[in-house]
Amino acid sequence: MINGGIPLKGTVEISGAKNSAVAILPAALLADTPSTIDNLPEINDIELLSKMIEYLGGKTIKKEHEIIIDPEGINSFCPPHELASQMRASYYLIGALLSRFNEAAIAMPGGCNIGVRPIDQHIKGFEALGAKTTIEHGIIKVKADKLVGNHIYFDVVSVGATINLMLAACKAEGTTILENCAKEPHVVDVANFLNAMGANIKGAGTDMIKIVGVDKLHGCKHTVIPDQIEAGTYMVAAAATHGDVTIKGIIPKHLESIIAKMSEMGVIIEEYDEDLKVTTAGRLKRVDIKTQPYPGFPTDMQQLMAVLLALADGVSMITENVYEGRFKYLDELKKMGVNAKVEGRTAVIEGVEKITGAPLKATDLRAGAAMIIAGLAANGVTEVKNIYHIDRGYEAIEKKLQKLGADIKRVK
Ligand code: EPZ
After folding, report:
1. What is the percentage of the chain residues whose pLDDT exceeds 70?
2. Mutation test of ligand 1: which of 86, 108, 142, 159 has the most ligand atoms closer than 8 Å to its C-beta?
3. 67 CB under 6 A from ligand 1?
């Protein structure tokens, strides 16, 4: 429940990056000895992955923002389907278990309902390394006599496929070249983790990654990078409520496209080494947004930015180039008086002076966060249902917002 209209003030600490952490936990299964991963976000996807790792025979010791994973006892390549099908990132267990056992059987991934989200590029890569894949009863089965390095050219830029093939190739025989790779900060973070375990991966963060297979990997200690999308979420919350918020523990480089676009709207962003200070000076201006793979404007910020555009002066256009179904949330926001029209991959949003609180249903992770921000900026009370979507990817979102002065509470 949110009572809107209060400018957010104060500081917020950013947690570890969800989309890095959900790849690093499966990556830890490639080693023969334990790894310690800290700056881990306290989110449900991590809990789910830890459960799957225990089910596979691994041991996990969970502390606040930290986990120790001992992969020694791993004795299965098939996590429980009802757990794997609840999240998208369970597909990283395919690359990890294929690398460890030359075999994996994982339920087709779940995750946010923002488009078809095929995994054909992952499968194309596994087959290039010598694996056979079949899909039966919703389960992906991948099996290889042995994995041999190859030259793989991705047809689309895919974060998941890029990371999954790094996992599958780092102990393959010989060299693997991945081309047309995703360059997101979490791709680099996972490559750094694998190299700390003894892998030989060069070029992560560019569109070509070279992996020279090694025989064994050992555990290591790793600190997950800060979550640039969580940081962007609090930047939008600060701007939407015309507050004064300092966002702590970020890597400004990872936020460049978000900082540039919000500055274009008139948001005032002061950059420090690891912090940003966000304020506004009056009503924001309309802009156009085109989502692209990193370093372009991130698709995960599209839904959040729509709330700022909905209140800006003028008509804005959002073109969603990554997913074909990521505008559903606008139907919910229209209940608050948001003026938006969707034509295929483009949304046209005409700014209004104010929006009013309404009962809303979160449709996916970032849509849920956008609805909370809209509630913070609206006049009156907003109720957001299905907040399990939000808890999958945001640590203690209502507590962090309460600390900034928001009138928000979780009710049964
Ligand atoms: C990751 O999803 C993130 N999820 C998404 O974040 C994020 O939106 C996306 O990357 C893009 O940055 C996790 O990391 C768990 P993709 P992923 O493969 O890996 C198509 C969030 O809010 N594609 O880069 O699934 C695909 O359909 C979530 O945190 C294929 O066609 O994204 C999409 O149109 C939402 N074939 C595009 O590529 C494939 O084999 C980008 O997908 C794979 C992808």
Report:
1. 100
2. 159
3. no
Sign of CA dihedral 107, 111, 115, 120: negative
The b/e string for 369-406 (b: 16+ C-beta within 10 A; e otherwise) is bbbbbbbbbbeeebebeebebbbbbbbebbebbeebbb
* Count of other CB atoms within 10 angstroms of residue 298: 23
Contact assessment for residue 258 and residue 292, using Cβ atoms and an 8 Å cutoff = no
Asked if the model's pLDDT at residue 324 lies above 90, the reply is no
> In this predicted structure, what is the pLDDT of residue 113?
79
pLDDT at site 252: 96
> Could you tell me if the CB of 89 is within 6 A of ligand 1?
yes
Tokens for 187, please give them. 């791709």
Give yes or no: 112 in active site: yes
User: Which residue minimizes the CA distance to atom 11 of ligand 1?
Assistant: 159
Surface-to-core class of residue 282, CB atoms within 10 Å of its CB (0-12 exposed, 13-18 middle, 19+ buried): exposed
Dump pLDDT digits (tens) for 65-106: 999 999 999 999 999 999 998 899 999 999 999 999 999 999
Cβ–ligand 1 distance for 322 under 6 Å, the answer yes
- The whole-number pLDDT of residue 344 equals 93
Pairing relationship of beta strands 288-291 and 315-320 according to DSSP bridges: parallel
Q: At residue 282, what are phi and psi to the nearest 5 degrees? A: 90, -170
* Active-site residue identified among 78, 112, 170, 181: 112
Among protein residues, the one with the nearest Cα to ligand 1's atom 7 is 300
Listed in sequence order, the DSSP H helices in 275-348 are 302-311, 329-333
Q: Is 230 in the pocket of ligand 1 (CB under 6 A)?
A: no
d(CA 85, CA 61): 24
Residue 324 Cβ < 6 Å to ligand 1: no
Greatest CA separation found in the chain? 64
Mean pLDDT, the chain, as a whole number?
97
- Identity of the amino acid at 2: I
Cis peptide preceding 118, ω within 30 of 0:
no
- Over residues 17-28, the mean pLDDT reads 98
Q: What number is the average pLDDT over the span 210-226?
A: 98
